[in-house]
Amino acid sequence: MGYKVLLVGSGGREHALAWRLVQSPLCDHLLVAPGNPGIEALGRGMGQGRVTLAKIATEAIADLVALGKREAVDLVVCGPEVPLMAGLGDACQAAGLRCFGPSRKAAEIEGSKQFAKEIMTRAGVPTAAYGAFSDVAAADAFIDAQPGDLVVKADGLCAGKGVVVTASHDEAKRAVRTMLVERAFGEAGGRVVIEERLGGREVSMMALCDGTRFVLLASAEDHKTVLDGDRGPNTGGMGAYSPSPLVDEALTEQIARTIFAPLLAALADAGRPFRGLLYGGLMLSPERGPTVIEWNCRFGDPETQAVLLRLGEDLLPWLLDAASGELPMRLLEWLPGLAVCVVLAAEGYPGKVRGGDRIAGLGDDGQLPGAGGDLVVFHAGTKRGDGGLLTSGGRVLGVTAYGGNLEEARERVYAGIGRIGWPGMHYRKDIGLRGKS
Ligand code: AMP
Ligand code: GLY
Fold first, then answer.
1. Tell me, what's the pLDDT at 160?
2. Last residue of a domain, one of 173, 196, 219
3. Inside any domain, residue 158
4. 89 and 144 share a domain?
5. Which ligand is nearest to the CA of 81?
6. Average pLDDT, 10 consecutive residues per value, the chain (437 residues)
7. In terms of pTM, does the model score above 0.90?
8. CATH of the domain at 175
9. Is 73 part of any domain?
10. Given this model, what pLDDT does residue 49 score?
11. What is the count of structural domains for the chain?
12. Fewest CB atoms within 10 A around its CB: which of 8, 53, 186, 298?
């Protein structure tokens, strides 16, 4: 008897998870709420598994749980952070559904930057020095007392947009005012965390956690800004590659020992055991070594697309075991090469975008005709319309390729992109080249 899985979400990250799950010989049926056209096509295009989309919004917790109960699913997997912060994990538990995703209290590691800072301090996890303020005068006094440049962050969830990296104390004070006085990020900015600005390269480390134990996934590097050369405004992520050449075995061990292990233990001690995917955004500071700049309570997007393309074994047993609190003590298997994901964005992104442009180049299954398993087009902001596949959102597609090395993966990914197009499409040409130029 195979398993029935309910996956929550509709982005490129969820397409990558769904792509993996339908390949599992253990997965009989994958339900996705609400999914996207790329996910829907997995049911037919690849001829594997059965995939059904349910028209339920990711925030409709009660409806999601009701669907899971009605369909008697064996596992709920949640992509985005918002449902987790709204209590999806707790609601599943109350309903007797096994969920790969933390409780609301554990998800606070992402939902409240102040909580994350406090628990890291308690656990001795290396992180930037900080202060938390809801009062402008107190924030100003703190800023004046700092020797170096600062980063100002809205305390709550703001879809990755509530962070201002500043180059002067005046700029930091202006950012504080934008958040605390003008409420540019609404209630999420009712409190700000001000922290020292660290130098170094950034890596994304994700771990499957079962409440007490964890296993790290392969490292990745996100490319957050919209333009080549890490210029322009920040976005949700314009591309990623995995593994990062910066994270060797010794550094992986150090990150596990000094960051993930003490944090998970502290969360469990605080009565908030973390079951699900824990994602650390780490700065590899030349002076201090790996230092946490953010925690997320869910898979990274677009890192997941690159990381999962390299996974050399079935993902489903790992998610089931983590969700059951029974993670096995072994490492995951990875393909030896490298994976690159390049995000194709709509005109205007990360600002206001236009939707409804017809996407040329993809087949009925939403994939590049003739592509093999080492070139996958993950859908994020797409929808089906009269003209076929249309854009619907800022990040539209995540073209992801595997290669024996970086050059091969990049060649494959950009050759694929050359066959896709719509008016105003833009993307970065330098994904994976960081540190090489
Ligand atoms: P976040 O939304 O927390 O990922 O922050 C957005 C970006 O701001 C990060 O990817 C970093 O590049 C940068 N950032 C955040 N905190 C710091 C810090 N303490 N020092 C330097 N850069 C930071
Ligand atoms: N790629 C950054 C994130 O998922 O938060």
1. 59
2. 196
3. yes
4. no
5. 2
6. 94 98 95 97 70 96 98 98 97 98 97 93 95 92 94 79 88 92 76 93 97 98 95 93 97 98 98 98 95 97 98 98 96 97 97 95 95 95 92 97 97 98 98 77
7. yes
8. 3.30.1490.20
9. yes
10. 54
11. 4
12. 186
Residue with structure tokens 């540190």?
435
List the CATH number of the domain containing 209.
3.30.470.20
CATH of residue 70's domain is 3.40.50.20
CB of residue 11 inside a 6 A radius of ligand 2 = no
User: Which CATH number do you get for residue 385?
Assistant: 3.90.600.10
Residue at 247 is within a domain: yes
For residues 310 and 342, state if they share a domain.
Answer: no
Q: How far, in Å, CA of 301 to CA of 186, rounded? A: 24
State the angle between helix axes of 113-123 and 261-269 in degrees (0 to 180), rounded to the nearest 10: 110
Residues 210, 307 within the same domain: yes
Residues 307 and 362 in one domain: no
- The burial class, CB within 10 Å (0-12 / 13-18 / 19+), for 270 is middle
Residue of 17, 226, 296, 431 to test ligand 2 pocket, by largest number of atoms within 8 Å of CB:
296
Residue 366 covered by a domain: yes
Judged by its nearest atom, the ligand closest to the C-alpha of residue 113 is: 1
Question: b/e string for 316-338 if b means 16 or more Cβ within 10 A?
Answer: bebbbbbbeeebeeeebebbebb
Do 209 and 293 lie in a common domain?
Answer: yes
Q: Supply 7's token pair.
A: 């996956």
Whether 365 is in the pocket of ligand 2, judged by its Cβ within 6 Å, is no
Same domain as 343, residue 315? no
Boundary-marking domain end, from 297, 323, 349: 323
The finding on whether 200 has its CB within 6 A of some atom of ligand 1 is no
**281 and 171 fall within a common domain:** no
Question: Could you give the CA distance from residue 15 to residue 9 in angstroms, rounded to a whole number?
Answer: 9
Is 201's C-beta closer than 6 angstroms to any atom of ligand 1? no
If asked whether residues 230 and 284 sit together in one domain, one would say yes
Is 222 near ligand 2, meaning CB less than 6 Å away?
yes
pLDDT attached to residue 181: 85
pLDDT value at position 45? 52
Q: Which amino acid is at 85?
A: M
- Residue 437's pLDDT is 44
Position 7 scores a pLDDT of 98
What is the structure's pLDDT at 166?
A: 94
